[in-house]
Design brief:
The chain is built from 5 helices and 2 strands. By secondary structure, the chain is mainly alpha-helical. The two termini are about 40 Å apart.
């Protein structure tokens, strides 16, 4: 028989975390984009109506396309001691996440602007990378937390391996006894 796995969300395998974390990540990211869009409509007078939609949702799409990076890093460097390996892998992963997020936003925004003939140009500069980088590190950490909530990246304690459950033979008790289950033990008690 083939072993049953849960899509890599248990922290036992170095996968991408399965689909369950995305059931939280997608609506949460889109909700943040919607709230930021509505805030921009309220705060930024003089902006065209479409501009906050373009800026916030291009960022959200770019982030969602990159959620695999923290999942991949968690699968290879679980957040367990020794911490050196986790820091050595997650720091460059967070920087890559930030860089690709900014590049993805630029491509989506400028491509949409070109395609729809909008009066907008997103310039990718060092100051933009620093501005976005601060927020992206927080996003990276939040994405890691969501994957951790679903068990991905917790790792195993050294020296411990998962113990498969041993099925207990269950037979009906004789007429003058009844069964008491105490965790994994089965006690038969006479009446």
């Amino acid at each position: 028989t083939m072993p049953v796995t849960n899509g890599g969300t248990s922290g036992e395998r170095a996968g991408l975390g399965g689909f369950r974390p995305y059931l939280v990540l997608v609506p949460l990211t889109l909700l943040f984009a919607l709230v930021n869009t509505m805030s921009a409509w309220e705060d930024r007078h003089g902006w065209p109506f479409w501009l906050p939609i373009l800026t916030e949702f291009s960022s959200a799409v770019s982030i969602l396309c990159l959620c695999w990076i923290p999942a991949w890093a968690l699968g290879r460097a679980p957040l367990t001691p020794p911490w050196g390996w986790a820091v050595a892998l997650h720091l460059p992963a967070a920087l890559l996440f930030s860089l690709l997020h900014s590049v993805g936003m630029a491509l989506l925004r400028n491509g949409t602007s070109l395609l729809l003939d909008l009066d907008y140009r997103f310039n990718l500069s060092a100051s933009v990378l620093i501005y976005e980088g601060r927020k992206d590190v927080m996003s990276y950490l939040l994405i890691c937390c969501i994957f951790l909530l679903f068990g991905h990246g917790r790792g195993m304690k050294p020296g411990l391996s998962p113990v498969p459950p041993v099925p207990l033979p269950i037979s009906p008790p004789p007429a003058a006894q009844f069964d008491l289950r105490d965790g994994a033990r089965l006690l038969r008690v006479a009446v």
